Amino acid sequence: MADFSHINKDNHPKMVNVSDKEITKRTATAKTVMFLGVEVISHFNKNELITKKGPVFQTAIVAGIQAVKKTADLIPMCHPLLINGVDIEINILDSEYIEILCTVTITGKTGVEMEALTGASITALTVYDMCKSISQKMVVESTRLLKKTGGKSDIKL
């Protein structure tokens, strides 16, 4: 069985010590696929929908950026990070689905995979919140890491 980096020798939780790691440029991109359905998507005009709560995609992107910056407050073993950049893109895939891509960049000692995953997830939940008056049949179907660079290894899934 592999050793867990967040468990000490006494089997108690710990935060990984990154003080000896090298500072490198690190990026991570996460993707969320979400079913909105024809009922919701049909209300969009050129990738834009404004509900009583405001512009859907723009509001969701701002929420996703805020979530990236708050990841360490939400996930206990994440390090608080000085984020260099966040780019969130929302694309309508077809008459029922959207995809959300969240890319996070940092120059630091630890990666930003959790920040990218959190940003994509909260962006999707905000889309849900903004559109639930139209339909509650929406489903956040999947969130996954697409790639990460920097640190010990680069991963492209």
3D architecture notes:
By secondary structure, this protein is α+β, with helices and mostly antiparallel strands. It has one domain (24-148): 2-Layer Sandwich (Alpha-Beta Plaits). 26% of the residues lie in helices and 31% in strands. The chain is built from four helices and seven strands, in the order βαββααββαββ. It has helices at 38-41, 56-69, 71-74, 113-131; strands at 24-35, 50-51, 54-55, 85-92, 97-108, 139-149, 155-156. The strands form two sheets. The protein has a five-stranded antiparallel beta sheet with strand order 4-5-1-6-7, with helices on one face. A hairpin with a 2-residue loop joins strand 2 (50-51) and strand 3. Helix 2 runs antiparallel to helix 4 (113-131). It is elongated. The model has no long low-confidence stretch (mean pLDDT 92).
Labels describing this entry:
157 residues, alpha+beta, Alpha-Beta Plaits, elongated, 4 helices
What is the element layout, followed by pairings?
Blueprint (H helix, E strand, L loop, with lengths): L23 E12 L2 H4 L8 E2 L2 E2 H14 L1 H4 L10 E8 L4 E12 L4 H19 L7 E11 L5 E2 L1
Number of domains as seen in the coordinates:
1
Topology order in helix (H) and strand (E) letters? EHEEHHEEHEE
The averaged pLDDT comes out at 92
Strand line-up in the sheet with most strands? 4-5-1-6-7
CATH H level, superfamily name: Molybdopterin cofactor biosynthesis C (MoaC) domain
Decide which structural class fits the backbone: alpha+beta
The tally of beta strands, per DSSP, is: 7
Which percent range fits the helix content?
25-40%
Form type: elongated
**Structural Rg:** 18 Å
Sheet with most strands: 5 strands, antiparallel
Q: What is the CATH architecture annotation?
A: 2-Layer Sandwich
Q: Give the CATH topology.
A: Alpha-Beta Plaits
Number of helices: 4
Q: What's the CATH first level?
A: Alpha Beta
Strand content: 25-35%
